[in-house]
Specification:
Blueprint: H1 26-41
Length: 55
């Protein structure tokens, strides 16, 4: 049985901290892409827009 859980993080209207993606091997890139796709498909994460806006 799966539960849909949502939470809210109060960031006090501050801009999120964005970090540059670190360099990875091609094998690591494939793993990251596969896991990211899985999390997006199960609604754990959402795709952001190109401007870096999260809201």
């Amino acid at each position: 049985m799966a539960f849909k859980i949502e939470h809210y993080i109060d960031a006090d209207n501050k801009v999120p901290i964005l970090q540059k993606r670190r360099e990875q091997t091609q094998t690591e890139d494939k793993v990251v892409d596969r896991k990211s796709d899985k999390m997006m498909n199960t609604c754990v994460i959402e795709e952001g827009n190109k401007n870096g806006d999260f809201l």
